[in-house]
Protein 1
Amino acid sequence: MNLVVNNTSLFLAAMLVLVALAISLWQKLGLDKDIIIGVVRAVIQLFIVGYLLKYIFRVNNFWLTTAMILFIIFNAAWNAQKRGAGIAHALPISFLAIFVSTGVTLGVLVLAGAIKFIPSQMIPISGMIASNSMVAIGLAYRSLNSQFHDQRQGVLERLALGAGLMDASIAIVREAIRTGMSPTIDSAKTVGLVSLPGMMSGLIFAGVDPVRAIKYQIMVTFMLLSATSLGSIIACYLAYRNFYNEQKQLK
Amino acid sequence: MTALMTLKNVTYQVEDNLILKDINLTVPAGAHYTMTGPSGSGKSTLLRLMAAMISKTRGDLIFDGQPIESYDPIMYRREVSYCFQQPTLFGATVADNLAFPYQIRKQTMDTAHVTAALDYVGLSAKQLTQKIEDLSGGERQRVALIRNILFLPKILLLDEVTAGLDTANKDIIHEWLRHLNQDRQVTTIMITHDTTEIEAADQLLRVVDGRLEVGA
């Protein structure tokens, strides 16, 4: 292990925050307060998570690990539903979509023997899956909202012709799923060429052989494709009905 | 003639804004009504309400002997079909639009039936593959109307479907509507501001400030 971040080096690295603050003040961006709040929150949150994870890893209890995974999923759902302003029941829909996408993906990885059900593997991997599913669902919600607004006339005409809600919405739902999945597909195409992703970078940083590190990254690519596709499709198929009332009219 | 649709004291209100006030109307089967009135008087709202695109606030709407609430809205809209003033065509081609009524009924497109409908309104089967952006305004309106009648509804509600069209296109649509009404017994209610259409009306409905005047 060749990691050498100690408190002094961390304190000195904090000077980099001054660069962001100086740019904000110089260019009158008005972001100085947000930068300070962001940095303070990041430091406090990460210290809490660090000590919490240390405890959970040491205890190595099935229920505690499961509770932590559910906590991650709930937080991801909470953030995803913020993008779904105007969509009724966005929180339970997001929770279900992230729960299923994370659960299925984790289940396959555990059954395939790629990871073990131990907190040091399950929790970081759950976080990666849930956060990507969260971003995909957030993008899908935004797409649903904008398309139901922009294509209102087309939806009304389909309804007037006697279309069911799915027939009236299918083009919008498909586009929203595509929107949710596209960042993961794009990053899968460029992985290793444009960026060295977090998991792979972290392993290399910690001294793991890059050839071994890429195997984990390949696994991550597979699992993120699964998570974002499952998350997007579940969220979109559950959310689109909320754009209609009980009389099957567009709200 | 038996009443196909009856409206009794129908009111439509959005928050404090009373848009339709105590509408009473009996529409016999096979009737052809021409509806007119100033812009913003509530004509389109009344037709959308009859098409179950919006719901009345108060009153009764009876269709084919049953209150509107007893119907599944999707099945109801297949019987009471509403055609918009400036329709949006779907997909890329004319065929995409004319296949849609079949798709929603889980059927494959009956090309012979579609071709006959196209032929009736002066369009050809060759135009099935035509891109919708290459259609003229009149052709777009005719394609949109065909979508509404490939499966004949009992009532066809037409919201200024001839507005902005030239005389030749208007004549094609008038003749077609006459055919649907007189030969196929489709009950029609057509909103118009066109003085020629108003003068030619057999039965005129006038909506003024949310109130309906029959035969005025």
Protein 2
Amino acid sequence: MKKSFSVLLSLLFLMQNNLIAQSDNQDFMRSIGKMYVVYGVIVVIFIVLVIFLIYLDRRLTKLENQIN
Amino acid sequence: MRKYWWKYLGVALIVYSFTVGLLVPLKPGIYSYDPGSMNTGQTYTLSVTGYNTFYTKAKDPIRVWLKYDSIHNIVATKVKILDDRKLEASFQIPKYLPTNDRVGVMSLIVDDDHDGFAVMPSTIFIKQDSLDKNTQLGSVSWTQSKIQGIHGKDQFNFPFRVQLSETIRNLYYHVPFWFAMFIIFIAGISQSIQYLRTGNQEYDYKSMSFTMVGTIFGIIGLFTGMIWAKDTWGTYWSWQEVKMNMTAIALLIYLSYFILRQSFDDDERRAKISAVYSIFAFGAMIALLYVVPRMVSSLHPGSGGNPALGADDLDNSMRMVFYPAIIGWTLFGVWMTSLVYRMQVVRDKLYDL
């Protein structure tokens, strides 16, 4: 569980770096009327909700182990 | 099924805010122009770049004005359409400005029958080197043309602002989280007060679950704001921006709430102290997020004066997506809360056995 969490976190930061690199090079984030900023924002919402799900999952696993 | 209706409603509203919020196009607007400053008595070719415009589809000739004030303006002598988004307007700037100021600030207006009209307010500077002793002369040359027969379009579009462009849609993916967070924190507070009144452990779990979801929403709001800030203010974290810093402080206060909870072994003491703490944290959040930003200037869009819902900043078309998004995310947050709460209750029962 811990491993998957850290993998997800590193993925998040990787994605961030990727976006920064592209915006420096070709102004990727500001192309097409900055639509990719909206896209990035939606991805962030999704990622935080997934982290919440992972938290719930871990807690529930603990409870299940408790029952067994 | 009957029990779940509000969950489905919340998800439906969120799906609505995503689809409508992403699919509805922006109003046609003026994206850029060149040159930005002119001198009196000369001829200029102003190249204009539009956004979401279809200049080639216009049936009537496109008209372009430089507007000084309600009565003074000049119309472009010749408009050349290059493609859907680009046109060139030739202007014969009169010898004098309508007033004796050295510099006049003009608004740029483009009108065509396909897209409607677009205005770029107060953008082009016109300098006059010699002042007109007889002010009438300048005034007369600026009143030759009238701005009339403007094509108003009544389509369902989101407004176009040059600095925001498409990121104006972030109103549906950033701001609702703050509103939902506030509502959920209020719910958490009411549960804390209920606990202090009754001493029932249930209320403590409810209050804790609400506070957790509110904090998650605050974190979402902060991170979504940071992504947007990088491309609008040029940095992920601006120390000049009061809302950002105050939010960080408020969220730290709420994060310490959870650390506080972990440091108690006794259920009753934990519940009591965290209930009191959450009430104080709520008071601090009100001060930090709703009082302080009103007293200093902010970089946020629509922050002039009252930083909440100014009448000028919210178009009706945006309200139709924005308000459902608030309700949707609030219901979604209550759903998340119920999951955390039910797990707490199960956990409590297990440990009691």
